[in-house]
């Protein structure tokens, strides 16, 4: 007679990470990253979106110095640090789920869906610079990546080392490709060729400036204006320089005319969009600002797949490697790695970033393509290196008694990173937008740093006090409850 078989044990129930299971250094890193995120995001509340990725040449004095330092030390570095932390968090959750025998894939997918929805709501109702929806999409891509490399054909590649090497390759390909184009440009152009390009672009720039000085054509005149572009350019050229070479070919004239038309259309569109943005955010009601953000949403979502796959995924994978390899969880056993990361990041990355920034400031930057390509390579490479330097420095300092004591003040902010991130943009929208105090565009770059300092001090104190009473930040609690599909206990239990 067969003995009855025991019932299989139920799968362990999903539950949030307890405070004892947390990696404190990751909370410190998140708190540190929030500083840079705020310093960058505040500019979104003072300048139109079109101008945020170019150097503001109108700044002078202390505002110029503050803007220059922010671009050198902060721009592009801190969202990459947050991306590393996202990949680290993914690895921590995955490895702990596997160790405990808990399901992971469906749970993590729900987590990303909730984060995506939070990001969309944040974008529509508060801030057009939201990145949470891209992080959520990148998280799904990361999950699909993991599932792909657990198939029989690829499982031998399912190692932290391979993921790290693949991620570095993904990061280097755009830089190497741009560098190859720049080298080709240098090999195929001599001094005379560059002078010819420079002269032509100066001519185009002058004609564009003259065209923009005229009132924009009415809609019913646009077609006629387009047909006569060549004649207009030729006439303007003769008026600007009577000694122009009369042997210029029709093909050259058409090329100049096409460039002028393209530049003028671009500038007109920029002016129109900027005016619309100013009217909605600086002068409009909350309903008008929300309607404008809703209108921008499709354009934002169109860029999410590109950003998630090509920009975020490789950084996520490096973060995954730092956890799965054991380097960060056992960081006290790897001090030399973090010292090396700090040294390379600061001693190599900071000069490279400075060189790229100096090139971006030059008037020739927007005229000679090769200069723009070299500036791009230096800037992006510097961003990755300096980001690594910040990571190495924070982890290294956290291993010292004095450093740990100072940096521990950032941990509560990091534990409430989602609440503090959205809290920052909510505060800034009230300060700067028309439906708040209406200071849009009126606070200089240097004074913005004082606003950032005040917000950070407030959030540091608030986070520390909140976590003395509650397990999670308010939005962290919502995120977890929706992910686990049950209301999570909020208050700390007292012994």
Task: Please give the structural blueprint.
Blueprint lengths: L23 H18 L19 H13 L4 H23 L4 H21 L6 H17 L11 H29 L2 H23 L8 H6 L1 H12 L9 H32 L4 H39 L10 H27 L7 H30 L2 H7 L3 H5 L1 H16 L12 H22 L7 H11 L11
Helix pairs in contact: 1-3, 1-13, 1-16, 2-12, 2-17, 3-11, 4-5, 4-11, 4-18, 5-11, 6-11, 6-13, 7-10, 9-10, 10-11, 12-13, 13-14
Q: Can you walk me through this structure?
A:
With 495 residues, the protein is mainly alpha-helical. Helices cover 71% and strands 0% of the residues. It has helices at residues 24-41, 61-73, 78-100, 105-125, 132-148, 160-188, 191-213, 222-227, 229-240, 250-281, 286-324, 335-361, 369-398, 401-407, 411-415, 417-432, 445-466, 474-484.
Outline of the structure:
The chain has 495 residues and is mostly helical.
Entry keywords:
single chain, 495 residues, mainly alpha, globular, disordered N terminus
Rg from Cα: 27 Å
Low-confidence stretches: 1-12, 17-21
Could you report the average pLDDT, rounded to the nearest whole number?
87
Please provide the count of β strands: 0
Helix share of residues? over 70%
How would a crystallographer describe the biggest sheet?
none
**Helix count, per DSSP?**
18
Q: How large a portion of the residues is in β-strands, by DSSP E?
A: under 5%
Q: Provide the succession of SSEs.
A: HHHHHHHHHHHHHHHHHH
Q: First CA to last CA: what distance? A: 52 Å
Structural class label: mainly alpha
Shape: globular
């Amino acid at each position: 007679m067969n003995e009855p078989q025991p019932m299989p044990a139920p799968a362990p129930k999903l539950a949030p990470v307890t405070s004892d299971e947390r990696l404190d250094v990751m909370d410190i890193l998140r708190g540190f990253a929030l500083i840079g995120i705020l310093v960058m995001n505040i500019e979104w509340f003072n300048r139109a979106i079109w101008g945020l990725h170019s150097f503001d040449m109108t700044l002078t004095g202390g505002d110029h110095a503050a803007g220059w330092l922010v671009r050198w030390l902060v721009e592009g570095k801190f969202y990459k640090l947050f991306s590393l932390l996202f990949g680290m968090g993914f690895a921590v959750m995955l490895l702990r789920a596997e160790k405990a025998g808990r399901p992971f894939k469906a749970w993590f997918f729900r987590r990303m869906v909730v984060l995506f929805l939070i990001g969309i709501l944040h974008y529509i109702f508060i801030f057009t610079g939201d990145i949470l929806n891209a992080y959520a999409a990148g998280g799904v891509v990361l999950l699909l990546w993991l599932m792909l490399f657990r198939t029989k054909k690829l499982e031998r590649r399912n190692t932290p080392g391979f993921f790290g090497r693949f991620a570095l390759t993904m990061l280097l390909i755009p830089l190497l490709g741009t560098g190859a184009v720049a080298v080709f440009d240098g090999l195929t152009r001599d001094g005379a060729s560059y002078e010819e390009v420079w002269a032509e672009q100066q001519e185009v720039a002058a004609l564009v400036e003259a065209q923009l000085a005229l009132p924009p054509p009415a809609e019913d005149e646009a077609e006629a204006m387009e047909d006569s572009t060549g004649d207009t350019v030729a006439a303007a050229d003769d008026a600007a320089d009577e000694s122009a070479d009369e042997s210029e070919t029709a093909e050259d004239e058409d090329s100049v005319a096409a460039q002028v038309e393209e530049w003028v259309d671009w500038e007109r569109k920029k002016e129109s969009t900027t005016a619309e943005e100013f009217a909605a955010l600086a002068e409009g009601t909350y309903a008008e600002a929300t309607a404008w953000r809703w209108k921008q949403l499709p354009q934002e979502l169109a860029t999410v797949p590109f950003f998630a796959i090509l920009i975020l995924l490789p950084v996520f994978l490096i973060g995954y490697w730092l956890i799965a390899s054991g380097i960060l969880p056992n960081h006290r056993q790897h001090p030399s790695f973090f010292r090396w990361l700090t040294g390379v990041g600061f001693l190599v990355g900071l000069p490279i970033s400075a060189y790229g920034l100096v090139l971006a400031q030059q008037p020739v930057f927007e005229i000679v393509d090769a200069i723009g390509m070299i500036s791009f390579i230096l800037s992006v490479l510097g961003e990755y290196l300096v980001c690594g330097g910040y990571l190495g420095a924070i982890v290294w300092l956290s291993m010292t008694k004095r450093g740990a004591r100072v940096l521990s003040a950032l941990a509560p902010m990091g534990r409430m990173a989602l609440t503090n991130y959205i809290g920052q943009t909510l505060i800034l929208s009230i300060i700067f937008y028309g439906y708040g105090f209406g200071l849009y565009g009126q606070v200089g770059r240097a004074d913005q740093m004082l606003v950032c300092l005040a917000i950070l001090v407030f959030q540091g104190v608030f986070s520390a006090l909140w976590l003395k009473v509650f397990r999670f930040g308010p939005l962290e609690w919502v995120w977890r409850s929706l992910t686990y599909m049950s209301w999570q206990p909020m208050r700390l239990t007292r012994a």
